[in-house]
Amino acid sequence: MIEIKNLTKQADNKLILRGVDLRVEKGETVAILGPNGAGKSTLLKVLAALIKPTSGQVLVNGLELKKNHIEIKKLLGYLPHSSLLYDHYSPLENLVFFGNIYGVKDVEQKAIKLIKEVGLSFFLNEPVKNFSRGMIQRIAIARAIVHDPEVLLLDEPHTGLDQGAISILNNVILSMKEKGTTTLMVTHDFKQAAEICDRVIIVKNGKIVDDFKIENRNLGYVSGKYELQMEGVS
């Protein structure tokens, strides 16, 4: 589904990604862990075709990203740190707008269904600018999946969410997984990684230093593997 070969990214004479190799199968949910500045968000931005790699190859569904980025972008749902929402639009207006970009059929019905799924039906027509950080994040999640993407790229999606919203987000990710969606999630929340992901990769100094399956939602196992890799990191 996703294949990355010897990926590097340099910016301002600094090598951010240093020869990343990764293969992710269709339907896998992968957590990307690592300290700040490790290159996690940069890796996601390369996959989202927002920045160009310095060297290396990225394949999605057998298509090379460099040559087919427009086609590949249609397969992707991306949730960065910013919501990408228009704050003077309501949740419904935002989702209809983004749904139309992707050619979603019956887009208004789909938007209403998603807003219900993220628990904000009562605020369907309220301007997003009046929302709390957690509410904005919920609508941003709905925006990222309005077109039923084959690949979901999430950059610290649990940030700013209360426990109820975390449960909603996790249920959305798991329901997308049931549809066959492949998910890569940058996170600092080991508990959520252990609960919803099949696999963890640990990034350190621009390289993948560990790659393992999660058995039985074992949080202690994830934490232990991470601490082992971070020894000596200030």
UniProtKB/TrEMBL annotation:
Keywords: ATP-binding, Cytochrome c-type biogenesis, Nucleotide-binding, Transport
Gene Ontology MF term list: ATP binding
Keyword Translocase belongs to the record: no
Pfam short name (any one): ABC_tran
Residues spanning the signal sequence: none
Matches recorded under Gene3D superfamilies: P-loop containing nucleotide triphosphate hydrolases (3.40.50.300)
Source organism per UniProt: Bacillus salipaludis
UniProt record similarity statement: Belongs to the ABC transporter superfamily.
Annotated ABC transporter domain residues: 2-230
Name the UniProt record assigns to this protein: Heme ABC exporter ATP-binding protein CcmA
Annotated InterPro entries: AAA+_ATPase, ABC_transporter-like_ATP-bd, ABC_transporter_ATP-binding, ABC_transptr_haem_export_CcmA, P-loop_NTPase
Source domain of life: Bacteria
